[in-house]
Amino acid sequence: MKAMLERLPKESGQSFVIRDFDYPYYPTPWHYHPEYEIVLVTESCGTRYVGDSITTFEPGDLVLVGPDLPHMYRNDEHYYNIESELRAKSIVIHFSEESLGETLKLPEIDRIRKLLQRSKYGLQFTGAANLKIASALKKIVTKTNGFERWLSLMEILQLMATSDESECCAISASSLLELHEVDEERLHGVFSYVGERFKEHISLEQAAELANMTPSAFSRYFKYRTRKTFSSFLLELRIGHAAKLLMQTERRVGEVCYECGFNNLSNFNRHFKTIYNMQPREFKKQIHLLQKRA
Asked: In DSSP terms, which residues pair with 64 in a beta bridge?
């Protein structure tokens, strides 16, 4: 399913866009745009699609979506009933690095710069951080002064940047290939090698040799830096690539299985269901239904 390019138009004198949406259901199809996007769901429930991630949402769901990352919010079926009185509400902000201007170069903004880098695969905020950020978002829509709105945006980004209650929306380990490019030098060669050859058999010993470490030391180090075992990382990378092929091409499940480095279809189905909570065929069917509705 090909994502559509969509943008929220800015008004004169604005460097970013704030919208307080109120719909019978969310109308936007599978889409992307060059701006960063903050989305706070204030009313309604359904399924959230961000990159290769498919998960449910409910009021309070809060996500920062990076530039050009395809995404969509699809309400539950009863929202589309012509007699339904349900509402789908959200607060949405679109901004770019130009919205932040020269301040983005200041050393005091280092955490916000890192936040924007991490948002490439989407970030979800939970817990106390979610409540603080949601409160700030509800206040920003009431402000009419442009400078006060800009200061509020910076406050929201700082809350996000300093939060330890965020996690990457992307299900697959593919995000780590870029998110950890700023990590220790010894991991660079490993990520580069795995990114190019993940369809082949890659052993822990091979990866450890690339990092110039013993297998046991590398295993501990890799899990500490990525919060995944090396085998889990490799598996998720393959499954993530499979999900993208199912979403973006017409390849059959069997073809995708072997193209992503699996040599057993039942094994592929089992691992796919563990990560996506559905079989590959069901995943492909959902994507095709969305394509027809878009």
From this structure: 38, 123
